[in-house]
Records
---
Amino acid sequence: MSFTLAKTERLAAILSQTPVIPVLTFSDAKTGVATCKALRDGGLTVLEVTMRTPKALEALRAIVDEVEGVTAGAGTVLETQHVEQAIQAGANFLVSPGSSSRLLSAGSEAPVPFLPGVSTASEAMQLAERGATFAKFFPAGPAGGPAFLKALVAPLPELHFVPTGGVDLKNAQEYLDLRNVAAVGGSWVVPQDALDSGDWARITQLAKEASALKARSSSQA
Ligand code: 3PG
């Protein structure tokens, strides 16, 4: 099964809405809703809710139902079962840190766009063989950073990446200036202490700074 043009276009439209996708891990739905409202108020409207906690699916469902004006995806999708659960919880897109062959089949057959992860040229080529145009580049810092992605532009010009893992406000623009970067992902916009203390104003402020960044490849740039 390969990646369809229709879903690739939907993914392109989602990614063009934002330079930064917050990577979010919630231990309860209420905190998830409040955090996503704070991020939206700061201008970040595309969000990745990781499937790493027992309440992740409940949080995703509440965000989809209660937070207007955001596009919420499911992150840390590792297995076929996660794909089904995330779709049932209302995920608008799916993200994985990697790309096993079974997950690629399940993800590309899902009714919403799928952003699989890669960290090598060979993995990127396997995605390209299946017709994918976008990939998460994870873990971006340890796997080679901006220099690695820059080196892929010449041999793999059709592929665009969402670097995530070790990205923050200081280095995000260096990634976003590359022609093959659609957006970056990261958890820095929601520091754990702000989440724990319910400091929504700080999260909105961090989102404002992040949403002011510009992706070179974005039609919004
Ligand atoms: C992810 O799942 O994408 C990462 O955990 C996010 O990485 P970061 O915490 O370094 O931003």
---
Amino acid sequence: MQSVALLMRACQRCTACLLHHQPWRFLVTGISEVDLPRITVPHKMQSRLQKIRQRQRQDQPTIKKSVFKSPLVISCKRGNFNHHRGQTYNDFGPQALASYGWKSRKSAGDYFTVVCHDKNPALASEESAKRFEDLHLDESLVKAVHSMGLVVPTNIQKSGTPAILSGGSTLCAAETGSGKTLAYLLPVLTMLLQRRTLRGEEEAVNSPSVIILTPSRELADQIMRVVETLQQHVDFTAYSVCGGRGTKGRLAWPVRRPMDILVATPGVLRKLLIAGQIKPSGLQHIILDEADTLLDDSFMDSIDRVLSRLKIPTLDSGVSGGRVVSPGGLDTSDTGFIGGVQFVLVSATVPRALPDSIGAYLPVDALQQVTSPGLHRLMPHVPQKFMRLLPSQKSPELVKLVRSEVEKKAGSMMIFCNSSSTCFYLGHLLEEHSLPAALINGDMTEKSRQGVFERFQEGRHDILVATDIASRGLDTINVRHVVNYDFPNFVSDYLHRAGRVGRVGSHTSGLVTSFVTHKWEVDLLWQIEISVRKSADLHNVNANIKRKISAEYAKRHGTTLDAL
Ligand code: AMP
């Protein structure tokens, strides 16, 4: 009883526990229940609580726990958002998305993964597999690809080769890493070898038959490496020239030799054309590798200037180097000889924007579109994880991720960010944690950028931190993990970055991890998630190139193409 009295004394000092000691009080003092003090919750607080409860009920996912037996396509931290192959939704609304609440900071810590749910769409199925021998390519080229260890052409090589061999201007759009370089090089070289005898040696001096334009020196170097491999078996000449500092010096570049192929970035090519070092008279094929980048705002002006310097016959000029160009722009004979200039646009996405200039040069009527069904979709054969983080969590999470990859020695890693300053910052951050990384961004001097990618490809660097400059076209078959430290601004950037893994010929299966930290990044993520859940194409990647060119042509020439 003494201890009860002690307890009571202690308790009475505390108003908050009145409710708790009431039974004691009743027991010890015998005060009736009627005398007990009442605690009333203020009305305002009650209604606030009610509202919170209501909101919590609404936020509860409307979809029931999945009972699907088909393979998993999206695996979520909150299992009730999982998505299975073939799963459909009666009433597909934003609330069906795992990332629905990700605009709120409270969602930090949530994640979901689009798991590997199909095979690489770039690879031809066993039944439909054609051989390189069946593609009407020059025999020496077939031998060359065999010596590279390639046996079966990829889908884009199978469908792109006949289209390009027909001589028509062609858009080849297929997934990243699907073998597009050979898809255009093999048919173009076949035509070049067939025409060889038609050009005198003096005529060919500094006058390339084929110009390949690329957005970056790294891609130009990579194309040259494929070209050089083919040169070991086939007799043709190829040169490469890229921009950057020292271009002036390079204007004393004329090789004064017959030139079959020139690989160049647009800026330096324009300078060489202005200086008269390159003669455009022998041009037969112009290839825009990574056409979506070359035709967007960043390169539009350069490309326009190059094309006007190249004096490519426009559709209305009707004249090409003394040859009459048919309204379709092309004169295709059995030998594949072309009357005008054949455009080949090569891209991993159908270009989202076209410059004002291109419509005046491209023989739109002859533009054949060779596209792959897997285009503008997430790669089904590569797991892609999306993590909702707070901005302050990004750096530690990255260090953790990089460290675990380095410890596993699983393969090399590419980390993408949206600006050069972040790229430099991440370089320092990783260095501080004894995780040295190579960098590539547009603000680096040409000298410091030179050879970085090549060394990364050779495995001399394990980690590469880069801006989108390194997301286009570069062949990265040793890369195992792509990390989007900054979530990309455009869906095409996402596809290009993710495409650094899961490439044809890759040694590892690959993985993509994306950090999502800001409200404005979530809209793009919703687009991606919806496209996977609905097995539909991603929006805003697919610009109708033909319609756009036609409209531009009509604007410039006051007549529609149909009227030609
Ligand atoms: P690309 O898309 O041209 O950058 O090529 C991506 C990778 O696919 C390169 O490493 C090529 O060597 C490889 N590749 C190209 N064609 C084939 C093929 N037919 N079979 C296997 N690998 C290929």
---
Amino acid sequence: MLKPDLNEAKKRTKDKALVYTDKYQITDELKKLGINKKYFIRTYGCQMNEHDTENIKAILEDMSFTETSKIEDADLILLNTCAIRENVHYKVFGFLGQLKSLKQQKPHVIIGLCGCMAQEEVVIEEILKKYSWLDIVFGTHNIHNLPNILERALAKKELEIEVFSNEGDIYENIPAKRESKYKAWVNIMYGCDKFCTYCIVPYTRGKQRSRLPEYIINEVKELVKEGYLEVTLLGQNVNAYGKDLDINYNMANLLEDVAKTGIKIVRFLTSHPWDFTDDMIEVIKNNSNIMPHIHLPLQSGSDKILKLMGRRYTKEDYIKLYNKLKENIPNCAITTDIIVGFPNETEEDFNETLDVVNKCQFDSAFTFIFSPRVGTPAAKMKDNVDIETKEKRLQQLNELINYYALEANKKYLNKTVTVLIEGFSEKKDGLLFGYTDTMKLVNVKGEEKYIGKIVDVKITETKTWSLDGKIC
Ligand code: SAH
Ligand code: SF4
Ligand code: F3S
């Protein structure tokens, strides 16, 4: 049993990340382990976790498991979890509670938990105390070893935990079963070294480590060959790409090289305001296949709170960068993340946040109430903002965000936009959906033949969170 260790997870040494190309290996015997068995996987959290799920699926299919969307048919049930806020914690444990009776009825079913929650000491303690009927728990650094973890669990028929809390290395050549045939997530870096005081990611994902450019470019070239039209370059902090490498190569260089592969649509997530360079702006401006959408988390508009959060920029820095982006990148859409109710946030501090929203008029935003995460500095701060105030602030902020989101969308009325049609919308019967270059959801009427095509759409109606249109 290898349990997570918060003190180890906090450590940062000067050691370079090691790149392994041969760590994922699977014996002929393990390739047969899943014959006639089905797996069901549920994913929580960010795009990085979604991409990890794509890796996990491919590994399981290498072992001959097949996927099922019906949990009652599954021989293996996996929850790929997120630790960013408390709400997922409760959802996951609620779900595990429900699975207990299924496990009693069908003891052969393997139930597992992985992802960022697996990296939390408190989660493992709770599992050992109340959910020891689980079969496997593995961490974000252990995905490549899943075949062996599964084999061990099956052999000894008791809970198998394998969670490394090291700073993390890079495992290349892990297969992926991608969700879409047209757009793909591509990790360009892992982990984070920013240590914002509220955030658990540096502990659950390890140190910032950039993939070598040649691996990224080759992956994108392969995707182009396979017919993919869009890639989203993923990292907690993509602007800092390359800073941990020995070579003189940064995010601007990478964006340019990815654009040159000929992939039609290049997106990237997430940009920390701290590391946004003028070179990046130039590259985005000069390459028509790099989309003019920047997700630029603000978190707070108050300098006092930003300092307490450890964000290392001021309200003024943020607004300056925002204006520079808007001036230099034509039709650029900017979206953001905001936390309300951080410890010590006064009404005045909150008004500073509203002031930035009024000045920047974001295209849209994800807004959250501060959630204390065990092990982070902010969780130890005395939280003097009561929950009613937090909820009131969230509501007030959301109203303003929604207002500007609708205003931004109204500008699209009667305009023609280019959209990669991804498929039929799950929520809207019979409608196709896709996104504009600025990442606005578009719903259109149309037949299956349009799926996987980049089409021109005339916008006929604008709403707060989406646009309706007609294929031209
Ligand atoms: N790396 C990205 C953010 C990743 S987490 C960045 O730095 O911008 C996504 C969002 O979750 C964050 O931007 C933040 O707004 C929110 N978040 C993170 N930790 C949180 C916490 N403890 N409570 C509430 N929201 C949190
Ligand atoms: Fe978390 Fe800050 Fe890193 Fe983003 S930059 S993942 S908020 S520590
Ligand atoms: Fe959640 Fe881990 Fe992503 S905490 S947001 S799944 S990096």
---
Amino acid sequence: MFPAVDQPADAIEPFATAERGARDLLRRLSAPPEVAVVLGSGWRQAADALGEAETECPMAELPGFLAPTVAGHGGTLRSLRVGGHSVLVLLGRTHLYEGRSPAEVVHAVRTAVIAGASVVVLTNAAGAINPALNPGEVVLVRDHINLTGASPLTGTEPPAGYRSRFVDLTDLYTSHLRQVATSVDPSLAEGVYAALRGPHYETPAEVAMLRSTGADLVGMSTALEAIAARHLGASVLGLSLVTNLAAGVSPEPLDHAEVLAAGTAAVPRLGRLLATLVPRLAGSSPL
Ligand code: 8IG
């Protein structure tokens, strides 16, 4: 088997690359992370509610992370202590729709878990398929339907010392962590997250199909990171901010600006939720 010529060498050895990332990360931190929090669109502005950064650096400084694109800026790694626990915040993520490989999409999560995080919180913004869900609402991901056609475990076998790539995904979004979240905020709904590649939104017919398959939410992230985290033995909590009704659920067409505005309006609530929830998740990994 030969890798495609234009593939970066890193993509061939994703676990070794994540190990290098973790070694570099640990040199920068005063303590290994216990919890890793990935802040997706809509959630980034809520990061400051967790407290003041102890250490912060551009993700691109660490091995295996992508250089920032010319247009946008790259992601940031921030470490801080929350309620006596060491927390690593990943501000920004990589998506398949950017033309990135599954290994690139999950690299930050792999790095965080190999560095020590036993709990991974994956946040995202999503469209509501279930009409009972409202924009501005936060939904606990109970399970996902991975319709990306991709897996972070495709390719060469994980090296010695890693679990089999034929990983069990029963209770992927650990019921224990969902219970902790519900105890912090009993108003949180639960739903099934359908992950698609995007970047286009769905047609109304696709949304109708997703609804009949049991999906409540639809988005373009999270599923591959959850799989990679579970493969490495971490517990996963998924939090979706509903920013729009999926196509056809509402008679209005989707407007990206409105999606962003709904995210901004929710920032104070997201901040409060993260600040109360994250310290309670540390040390609560039953795996
Ligand atoms: I925010 O309606 C957000 N992300 N696929 N569909 C998909 N992704 C989304 C949507 C949506 N809203």
